[in-house]
Amino acid sequence: MSERIAEKLNDGTIKISGKVDSKNAAQFEKEVFEALGESKDSVTVDAADLEYISSAGLRVFLKMKKAINGDITVTNVSSDVFDIFDVTGFTSFINVSKKLREVNIEGCEVIGVGANGTVYRLDEETIIKVFAPGVPLSTVKEERDFAQAAFIAGVPTAISYDVVKCGDSFGAVYEMLDANTVAAVIKAHPERAQELGTRLGKLLKELHNTQGDPDVLTNMLDIYRQRAAGMSKYYTTEETEKLKSVYAPLAQSNTIVHGDFHVKNVMLMNDELVFIDMGDVGYGHPILDLGGTYLGMVRIGKFSPDAVEHYIGINYELSMTVWNALTEEYFGKENAETGRKLAEIYGEAKYALVPYIYTKFDEATRQKFIAGERKTGIISPDFDISHLQEYLDKIYG
């Protein structure tokens, strides 16, 4: 009896292997539809062990397409087999993805560590961001897609190449020639903090003068408004309404926002500043970026100065030097203080959303956080936002 070509795995995936041609296409069809069973929903086909498929085998996919209501996704396809799907036009109506390249990072230099991954130097021309175990492939591909969308829009960011496999994790490979994070440069040369802070301000203005593609990027203002409303699970009605009121006056905009802008997420490459870590890129009001930057570079240091270096790679004193130079360049000297007050409000508002974002908090930690916010955070009665509209009008008109 011939070896099976197709079989159903425990997770519902149909695994196919070997070579499929006119000689065994009938067997292939029989086994595929046995594996498909009564299911008429979307189906995933793992083709990691598929060596070749002829037109006779492709016709089986056509029959599958007609038999189900959902999509067909073919994964882990070799380059040669992908070319067959592509040349014959099957990639236009079937989701076909190539098998991920395996990359060994053993011995590679670590050049940055973030909340959801670590960046390594692969060679002189490329870096790789290896995501934490458990981060799904879809998230990695989404970050790659966001980076590509930003690059096409004219944002200075690293060229993204491919998504790869690193042991039990996924990674994204980027072009990065002769580069290091701004944080690492400032740590090695603290005398450059003022200069690089000014350049970061110019870089952020350049980003905020760029329009994003709403069909690719996420509407970040909507996300923040939804999160603020969702805090009703944790805060009182009055506290939640105060938080929501911070986002209410912001106008919708297609402005690209980075989402996590600070000195560890910008690299100095051949003396050019280049964005990295594009997983939070979206479009929305630019103050959302300034609020996030305030949170990472200023707010954390107010309560725990030592934590700043752990988070962004430079000490609190240098961070404040960068922040003041950045905001003076971004808002202009005459409006810098007003801009910083606005950034503080939106940074504190973002911080107040932590229980909504980090759902893995245990109850004791969550209650401790909420108690702290009621004492010193934006939902505290003592935190004044009465001049918010005045500040917005002054800065954004």
In short:
By secondary structure, the protein is an alpha/beta fold.
Offer a few descriptive terms.
single chain; 397 residues; alpha/beta; Phosphorylase Kinase, domain 1; six-stranded mixed β-sheet; five-stranded mixed β-sheet; 17 strands; elongated
Can you walk me through this structure?
This protein is an alpha/beta fold and 397 residues long. It folds into three domains: 6-99, 2-Layer Sandwich (Transcription Regulator spoIIAA); 109-175, Phosphorylase Kinase, domain 1 (2-Layer Sandwich), CATH 3.30.200.20; 179-396, Aminoglycoside 3'-phosphotransferase, Chain: A, domain 2 (Alpha-Beta Complex), CATH 3.90.1200. It is 45% helix and 20% strand. The chain has 15 helices and 17 strands. The protein has helices spanning 25-36, 55-67, 79-87, 137-152, 182-188, 193-208, 220-230, 237-247, 287-303, 305-312, 316-331, 336-352, 354-357, 363-376, 388-396, and strands at 6-8, 14-20, 43-53, 72-77, 95-98, 101-102, 109-113, 117-121, 126-131, 160-166, 169-175, 179-181, 218-219, 256-257, 266-269, 272-275, 282-283. The strands form four sheets. It has a six-stranded mixed beta sheet with strand order 6-10-11-9-8-7, with helices on one face. A hairpin with a 5-residue loop joins strand 1 and strand 2. Helix 7 (220-230) packs antiparallel against helix 8 and helix 11 (316-331) crosses helix 12 (336-352). The longest helix is centred in the C-terminal third of the chain and has 17 residues, at 287-303. The chain is elongated, with a radius of gyration of 25 Å. The N and C termini lie far apart (77 Å). The model has no long low-confidence stretch (mean pLDDT 92).
